[in-house]
Amino acid sequence: MIHGPDELLNDYKSQIAVTRDEKELEQVRVALFGNSGAMTNLIKEIPGLPKEERSDRGRLLNGIKQQLEGAIAARLGELRVERLADIVETEAIDITFPGPPLGQGHLHVLTQVRRQIETVLESLGYQVELGPEVETEWYNFEALNLTAGHPARENWDSFYFTPELLLRAHTSPVQIRAMQRIKEPPIYIITPGRCYRRDAPEATRLPYFSQVEGLAIDRALTVGDMKGTLLYMIQSLYGIERKVRVRPSYFPFTEPSFEFDVTCGICNGMGCKSCRHKGWLEVGGCGMVHPQVLRNGGIDPTEWNGYAWGFGIERMAMLKHDVDDIRLFYESDLRFLEQF
Ligand code: PHE
Q: Where are the domains of the chain?
């Protein structure tokens, strides 16, 4: 159909107005201004017109062309706004919507247990005393009555840097350091800290672990005082139904020496699989401080005496939470750690 310019203007204006997207609008533009577009064809006809009509015709078509170009540009603007509105509707973020809760960290189970132990003993008047993890051979062994060549040294198989310097194998050297620092008894201290032994990792032992040693030095202390303290500590941590017993043992730095056990929490001392039908679980070592050890710390054993104990924090945590493999504490597996 041959359009006059006015018809063409109205026809295409309405086509532009109903385009639904930029692709459709582009099709209309090509139909008008492409190589054989309607507008292009009209302009191509100009040179064939009588000379006197050409300039009027040219002006008219140019005006129409500009109107149509304007209409296309305006429609393009509208379509873009509509598309953005669509995106806002379907993809926008609702900033009032509550976000997922942030994961909150907490203290490692060993830190929790260590702090509980500290809190209980601090309530009895004990103070926390810390010492170096790299120790001299004198503090780690000699001062504790483990003289060179002493057969019991092999119970504390150690990592040496030099013949003189090693990673401490227990926290007992802090006993000596505390006596030297405080000088005047009474002394009531606990010494939490990391220890190292030349052991391969297994379910029950690791080459690195933590201990808490306790040391009390006063006048005329007895094994009963020591046992009462251990009982108070165990019952505060595990519950009032727990019992403590001490069994004769040997440590070069205590005399007499004992192992101390606590009743199994699963069978309440009756004997079950978990305590291998003994009813008791081993916790640590203890005893009355050897007079020579007091002397090595600069304390007069004719005036003062004392008791000491030591146990592993991991072992305490295992007993408290029924954990059967000590390695779990150091594997950083959140599925394990988040339980505590
Ligand atoms: N230091 C000993 C150990 O590591 C434990 C202990 C401490 C025993 C104090 C008696 C007195 O095995």
A: 5-91, 109-337
65 CA distance to ligand 1 middle (Å): 101
**For residue 186, cis peptide bond before it (omega within 30 degrees of 0):** yes
Tell me if the bond preceding 256 is cis, omega within 30° of 0: yes
What is the H or E stretch that residue 114 is in?
helix 109-122
Nearest to 281 by CA among 247, 232, 307: 247
Q: Which residues contact 49 (CB under 8 A, 6 or more apart)?
A: 57
* Helical (H) or strand (E) element with 261: strand 254-263
Share of the chain above pLDDT 70, in %: 99
For the chain, the farthest-separated pair of C-alpha atoms sits apart, in whole angstroms, at 138
Give the per-residue pLDDT at 2.
Answer: 53
Contact 215, 189 (CB under 8 A): yes
Q: What is the pLDDT of residue 1?
A: 47
- In this prediction, residue 322 carries a pLDDT of 85
Domain 109-337 in CATH: superfamily? Answer: Bira Bifunctional Protein; Domain 2 (3.30.930.10)
* Cα-to-centroid distance, 4 and ligand 1 (Å): 110
Q: From the CB of 309, is ligand 1 less than 6 Å away?
A: yes
Taking only the tens place, the pLDDT of each residue in 254-302 is 999 999 999 998 899 999 988 889 999 999 999 999 999 999 999 999 9
Say which residue the tokens 């019991």 belong to. 152
**Which residue owns the Cα nearest ligand 1 atom 5?**
310
CA dist., res. 211 & res. 130, Å (int): 11
Most ligand 1 atoms within 8 A of CB, residue of 155, 172, 179 to mutate:
172
Nearest C-alpha neighbor of 262 from the set 319, 309, 192, 307: 319
